[in-house]
Write the structure tokens for this entry.
Amino acid sequence: MPKPTPRAASNENNFAVIDGRTGAVTPAIPKINLSSLDDVRLEMSRVYRDMRANTIDTGDGSRLVYVLGQLAKLHESVEIARRLASLEMAVGGRTKP
């Protein structure tokens, strides 16, 4: 993985971490919104493009995509549980004899 180039924060959208001992400036990692299945899909696409462009190592990218895949499964499970609860409420809690 290439090391980030030192740079100073130029505006409030461009945060950086400054090491108090050495004064080295490291860009802060941006917070990624993964609150929906579509957000996870978009992040997977970003990671894939970064691997193709050799911006990140394929081993690191593979691990990130694996974790994103687990998050996608979790989103799907939650959605299925919500739909099932909704169906059960609509039926009135009746079960088969």
